[in-house]
Records
---
Amino acid sequence: MAKLYFYYSAMNAGKSTMLLQSSYNYQERGMATVIFTPKIDTRYGVGKIQSRIGLNADAVPFDSTLNLFDHVVATKAKMDNLKCVFVDEAQFLSKAQIKQLTEIVDKLNIPVLTYGLRTDFRGELFEGSQYLLGWADELVEIKTICHCGRKAIMNMRIDDQGRPIKTGAQVEIGGNERYIAVCRKHFAE
Ligand SMILES: [Zn+2]
């Protein structure tokens, strides 16, 4: 039976690296995969996913209008050996899109592996993460540590001077320079 997985973590825990490695493992065995990545994330170009250690792959860009189930049905019609679906930055999916992922698993029997942040820089759940936490078959935490050595579970947004920012839009794409992963204690301070 296929399952829906949510691999969640704070920023910079190596999620994209894990996704790319897993996808590569399928392809190495002659099995095709589909990778979705958010359209708003253009750090490496639209429809590109890249990890900090240099792995990269082509991906299907999504915004809130893309029906992931319909896209996978159409892809499977062309690629009979489609065996796994991956979603990068899955916190940006809508509730309806998480429902579509459950249908890919339950109706098409294709495993779906999603990777994303649990909470935003205010400590609030993202919509996509909220429903993945609620509906995924398997929740897997990817652990990373705060500068103090405790487990980092929060994402602090910082300005270019390294000072914490407490307000602003939930979605602001950036890499190492914009966010740091910290433990709950240092987030509160
Ligand atoms: Zn700490």
Note: The pocket of zinc ion is lined by residues 146, 148, 150, 182-183, 185-186 (CB under 6 Å).
---
Amino acid sequence: MVDMVKTHTGVSFGLTEEQKMLQKMARDFTTAEIIPVAADFDEHATFPEDIFHKARELGIVNMNIPAEYGGVGASPFEEVIVAEEMAYGCTGISTSVSTNALGDLPIILAGNEKQKAYWLGERLVDKGEFVSYCVTEAGAGSNVVGIQTRAEKKGGSYLINGSKIFITNASHAHFFTVFAKTNPDAGHRGMTAFIIDRNSPGVKVGKKFDKMGQRASDTAEIVFENVEIPEENRIGEEGQGFYLAMKVFDYSRPGVAAAAVGLQRRALEESVKYAKQREAFGTPIYQHQAIGHKIADMAINYEASRLLTWQAAWQVEMGIVNSKVPAYAKAFAADMATKAAIDAVQVFGGYGFMKEYPVEKLLRDVKIFQIYEGTSEIQRNIIVRELFK
Ligand SMILES: Cc1cc2nc3c(=O)[nH]c(=O)nc-3n(C[C@H](O)[C@H](O)[C@H](O)COP(=O)(O)OP(=O)(O)OC[C@H]3O[C@@H](n4cnc5c(N)ncnc54)[C@H](O)[C@@H]3O)c2cc1C
């Protein structure tokens, strides 16, 4: 791990004393509450509701809700410190407990005072509810502009019709931030964001999906059938939804990258431990250069992913609006985490393929990092767009 290095340029790759304390708190929480149950929650696809509430009491979930609405008011940098620690324990559990910090972003970034006080303050902070972020549809994932969910203005309300797929925490969410078309002929200018209460008549949440990995996270479909919501549930102006969805990703991608970094650290530490103790041909396997080098690459990629993630979070904190660095961080950390998990299984040999060893789960859990919140291909499209504009 990089430790405190402060130079005369003012650049620091280290953590302040407060950040180190936060990191320790999240690490201790992960050790006590997440690691012991991770395998069982994975096997039974258990939603970690109790863990969420314990983490909430400690102030390590809902971290991005500003203090004026009763939240922790943490910085994006503090969020990535915590995300790495919890993901080290289990990325399924960490995804579940951190999804509010995605679902609430449209309100934080574009909501009005009344919306923030009610949905962030009363609903998320005081009542401890869950919110899901709903963009993806069966026919439109990467192509966000292709969504079909329709929001029609009817007097002082909107009528919502359509469906969303692969929505994290949908089975448990008390409300949803939903992107819909207010003007289907206006392309990306025809999209608007709304807050939809789960109890609204016409909201139906489907059965949760049975997944390959991150099984302690909940993923389900939501159908909106003539759901009538008041105009005051519109987030921002009509037509601003696409820009808002893209802005949300600039804020959320450092956190996803941080989770991939946490998984890399787990793969690295498990590999070091195993390669020291396992012998083949009369020597610990790390002394076979093919294995030692794999683990060295894991360490290099982990540190590099983490630095990019920190830079992306720092940039958000500094108010620098730029999709490029969050895309670098998300793409690199996801790709390197995938490589680390594959290589960790290789280091463990046949045992790596068995459920009783922790790296089998890492390999199943890791794949989604290259898919959700923009696939690795889409991150590269963003980078090309930014480089050539
Ligand atoms: C477990 C899980 C949780 C999720 N949680 C949420 C959530 O909470 N909220 C939400 O809104 N969504 C969520 N998603 C959806 C996720 O963001 C999408 O699955 C993802 O964006 C990809 O969309 P798609 O599945 O439709 O794939 P597609 O867009 O159909 O892509 C298929 C393949 O084609 C590639 N491709 C597509 N277009 C291009 C292009 N222009 N250039 C190069 N390659 C391209 C993709 O990279 C991919 O490899 C979740 C998905 C999963 C699996």
Note: Residues 132-136, 141-142, 166-168, 211, 219, 368, 371-375, 377-378, 381 surround flavin-adenine dinucleotide (CB under 6 Å).
---
Amino acid sequence: MRRGLLLAAIVLAVIVAIPIPAAAFSGFGSTTADATYGGRMRFTVQLPGGSPDQLALLLRFAGSDSTVVVPVDPGPLSAEFVRDTAAEPITPNTSIAYRWRATNGEEVTLSPEKTLLYDDDRPGLDWRSARIAAATVHWYGGAEAQARHFGSVSADAAAAAETLLGHDLAGPIDIFVYDSRNDFFGALGPGAREWTGAATFPALRTIFMWLGGGSSSYLETTMTHEVTHVVFQDVTANPFHDPAKWFNEGLAVWSEQQSASGHEAAVRSAADASALLAFDGITESFPIGDQAARLAYDEGATMVQMVINTYGRGAIAAIAAAWQDGAGDAEALEAGTGVTADQLYDAYFASYGVAAPTAVEPAPILPSNVDRPPQPAAPATESSAPSASSSRQPAESGGGAGWIPAVIVAGLGMGVVVALVAARRRHASP
Ligand SMILES: [Zn+2]
């Protein structure tokens, strides 16, 4: 009996001592990705030899210079990452370059890069497409003739913008023509900048059109406007600074008719009402109010017209080229025209018989007029004595010395916050 127990113990010890072969990462197997519009994106990888110490999925979205790193907990022989695109929408026609990164000890292994196209594959959208010049038009249902027409309008618009800006499109454009309002707004998702009948995502080189958005001539005009934005994006792309919004929009509006004459009257009547907007005020964003926003477009278009009339079409290309080289707005305007931005603005307002609008000074904050209830008198204890300040301070400096550094520190802190806010605002501009 005892001998039997001993034998069992020895067998158990031997079993425990035999090392179980640990699964070791031996490289990546196959990688796959699929997506359902408005549902999810799923990325999978096979790990035939086992999982590495650390695993991450690297995602690069079209139009972005940055890589999103997603740490993923692997299973024994595979790993999966699912993104809920209903909760975190992605614009359709976004291509996503992806690869897996394994870190095993000191060794880093990358899987080959592949691409997933996140397309609008909602049921009932039987997309068909045709290539027309630099544009690929996509349509469904019975919209082929209109879609092809928009393709040729976009080709003309692109050619005109390329000639003006002295730069070719950097790549093809995709135009998606939607038949129904629901389908169209379903593609834009929340937060998309939309025009009534079209929305453009220059970084994706993609234009979405809704056939019900207006008359056919309105839609043609809109197509010209939107294609001009894509060419302008190509011409000015740089990692430092987005060109002034009034110039970008002004050029797109001017391009609709190759003229701003239709916008003169609105600017003139705003000038008569002393309501013109300073260009510095419409550099980052346009007013929210409809009337003021329209005026911002009108001023941009008429300024572009004035630059062309005074300095020639070549000035527009030179301004855009300066932006691409990383110039600020004032530097770019001067590079194209030879005069300073302030001189340019002054000449513009003078042509409408008004002085340049001046900045509104913030009103001073007056002392509080709130009647405070009687405050209890501070008890005269040792702790409130000036000795609370740093012992290195001379006694004569009294209690004040303690809070001066505190105020300076608080001031620095506020400066940092303000700078961060300003930097973030710049970053967030479209
Ligand atoms: Zn626009």
Note: Residues 238-359+418-430 form one domain.
---
Amino acid sequence: MKQYSTEILIVGGGPGGIFTSKSLLANNITDFKVVCDEPEVVCRCNIPYGIGKKFLNDINDAVTSHHTFLPNFDDVGIVGRISRIDHPNKTAYGTFLKSDEDFSVSYNRLILAMGGQASLPPIKGAINLDYDGSNPVGEVVYYKGKSYDKAALRDNVVVVRSVADARRIDAICGTGLTVAVVGTGLVGIEIIDNLIIRGNKVEVVEILPHLVSFLDADMSTHLEEALKNEGANIHLGKPCTEVGDGYIIVGDQKIKADLVVIGAGVSSDIQLAREVGCEIGKTGGVRVNERCLTSVPDVYAIGDLIEIDDAIFSEPVQFQLLPNVMMQGAIIAKHFKGIDLEGPLAVGAGMSHAADLFWGFAGYSEGMVASRDLNVMAEKIELFTAEHASPYAKKAWYKMVVSAEDQGTVKRGQIIGFQAITQEKHLGDLMARWADIIGEKETVWDLPKHNWIHQPLVGNPPSNAYIMTFFTMFTGKLEK
Ligand SMILES: Cc1cc2nc3c(=O)[nH]c(=O)nc-3n(C[C@H](O)[C@H](O)[C@H](O)COP(=O)(O)OP(=O)(O)OC[C@H]3O[C@@H](n4cnc5c(N)ncnc54)[C@H](O)[C@@H]3O)c2cc1C
């Protein structure tokens, strides 16, 4: 058995493992090994676009090698899978991907970056529960708390997580199929859009009464309308309960579906972390502190694997997004150099595009806090992103959610959420700015201290017109 010895062992070669490796190198820390069990490297964010071919011919255009990110991968990388970690003796055991031979790695500090795998809601027929293929390794799906080899999925059911998933969908869609998409999160909406572009008829199924849980109904209605105009059939407020050959069941309706794409989220791959003894939080992620240290000394965890406390309610959450993963790698590398930064990012924020609309959110919607004992106020405004006669003017709807009372960790007037839907594509900076404002726990009374630039032709989404409109609306109703 090949034996390695290293100061730092990283398990998992997704964005978390790779960016942590890059950060270590950037800090002149070279005594580490990263174990990757996927032979190809892809930024998963590209996966929907390999299907719709909006800017990729296929997913292969986005696939790259470990060496692209880590030129010294031959020295620091191991292409294999870790199957057991004996943490008391600080040794991990695994198998090489190519040769099936075993190896071991002794380490001093451990970074867990196993990410997550697609999770299936309880849908009868979606998975062959009696499947007894080889031990579930690598590509698995979670169903009712158990992991299954992806080969156990019904022939006409796919999930969206890996390059293999993208290739599978790409190979069978685009031939005039009727495709059902179950779940309308960030990934679900992108898949719907890309499937429509490929010429499929798309049936959208969402258990909530409106699309996208991060948006409120009065915002997602614009997205719904745009997708309907593109030809999507939308079924809201009922779960998909069954899949059969050529159909799905939604409520009491049998709907034609040649292919069923399930975009219902990701569950953290916690098996090894549990074996190591790491505390697992309420959300099913590995608990970490602000340095990404788990409950076990010398064991760190990052990325889709972890749970942190959010900035607003100080409650456990999982933010399974790329920027969070990258920042966590940077935080650990600096920590190993003796510099402790603040982190990890503790505000949920995302954005996407479908039909002719760009949409984004930061923090919480009214709907997301409805079950809490917290009075909130919300205002929505409709505007153009520049003077409406400007050729750059785009339609936009913005919504702000504010706490109406002091309660627990939240102050009266604190901005707890911001949503945007617009035809303006430069949404990233706007949403990031709101994520920062929300993360800093600012109130509506703090708004005038920000710089806002306005120009009639060019506009700029954060123009003073809209920010002062919000300031006036909220401070007119909320006494300081
Ligand atoms: C379709 C899709 C679109 C997305 N779009 C966006 C987006 O637009 N913006 C955004 O911010 N985020 C997006 N994300 C989320 C983002 O991709 C994830 O947050 C990110 O991939 C998490 O990185 P990670 O390294 O923590 O986990 P993962 O990406 O899951 O990587 C973990 C790696 O560890 C490997 N591994 C697991 N167990 C072992 C083991 N025992 N031994 C060795 N290796 C192991 C896994 O095979 C995998 O390669 C998207 C995700 C998907 C699926």
Note: The chain has eleven helices and 28 strands.
